[in-house]
Design a protein that fits this description.
It contains one helix and 33 strands. With about 425 residues, it is mainly beta. It has two domains: about 60-210, Lipocalin (Beta Barrel), CATH 2.40.128; about 220-410, Methylamine Dehydrogenase, Chain H (7 Propeller). It has a five-stranded mixed sheet with strand order 1-27-28-29-30, with no helix packed on it. A four-stranded antiparallel sheet has the order 2-33-32-31, with no helix packed on it. Mean pLDDT is about 90; it is low at about 1-25.
Length: about 425
Amino acid sequence: MKTVHRLLRLIACWAAGSSLLFAQEWTRFRGPNGAGISPAKTIPTHWAEKDFNWKLDLPGTGHSSPVLWGDRIFLTSTGDQEGGLYVLCVGARDGRLAWRRDLPLTPFKKHKFNSFAAATPAVDRDRLYIVRTEPERYTITALTHEGQHVWERDLGPFAAENGCGPSPIVYQDKVIIGNEQDGPSFITALDAVTGKTVWQTPRKSAKAAYSTPCVYEPKGGKPALIFNSQAHGIYAVEPQTGTILWEYDQAFDKRSVSSPVVAGEIIFGSCGSGGGGNLVTAIRARDPGHLRKPELAYQLKTSAPYVPTSVAQGDFVWLWSDAGIVSCLHASTGEIRYQERVGGNFFGSPVWVDGRLFAISTSGEVVVLEASDKFKVLHRHPLNDRCHTTPAVAGGRMLLRTERHLFSVGGKSRADDVD
């Protein structure tokens, strides 16, 4: 009987662990550690309109990407010139709106391609964290998964000619957020339970940065938070204290919008402008514990992305430019394997799923590429709505958010692909 009880306990522990892994699939911008990578085997390469699991009409408009915990999808939308930020909870299985909570936001001047609902939320087991910015205040709000208010922090004024953008992450029971803007700048960690400041590190001000941090974990070394900005380039931060471990401050000469991507000891970031001059910088990072500065590995200045974040898997990194040119590089050496045009314009970033790349153009066309060093377009599907967002993958399904709609596709074996 003891053996049976022990077996039942093991099964219960396995089930709880499996549930946790399922829940943690896509909890921040671009999923686990911002890498834009999913192990899902149930996302089709080809599909038609009839193959969507569901399609939801969203209130207002928005550019934030969806995040998920368990069976709940969270995202934001806005009334745009009417103001307000709508926090939405949607059932992952049926696509029904479970609840909506409206937060105050007064309209202000921003870039014509931006949205008041631009920042992607972050979610953990207990709470949802939403960022909204106005010139007078930079606010982060914590809600329960049922939409109840937990805490709110005003981080002070937010000065940026292009408006909103930075997204939060949750790391080691802390909400980490960048606040590198045109005015007084800092990065900060807030206690996820109370919202109180754990640490706040001053930063120089330059062009406002819209980069979302990630974590670098060197072999045998201690983890570090990685941030991108024009003022400080690519830099590493000690997660417990906010101490700056190292900086490569020559990485960028323009605004940084895309987020850092880690491929082994190579860390990628990009900068640019609406007028061009985009470049990707790859640095060879050092163990932060040794306080050794990183060194430049290489740069790419031809057809480099400005807004989209790159994706790295295995030996390769794929750079998807705003102008619809995809570059495949050998990640450690920078050797260009191809540079090809897929067409369209892109503000959303690509994601890697089971050997394929998925990205959505600003006109709402989903483009699927083979994720190899050979250029091959596998599928295109129009969503017929404007789109500035990045796909999310969780629970074996892909979530595609356009300005006014949310779609779910996948969940079956890839053998069931529709041609």
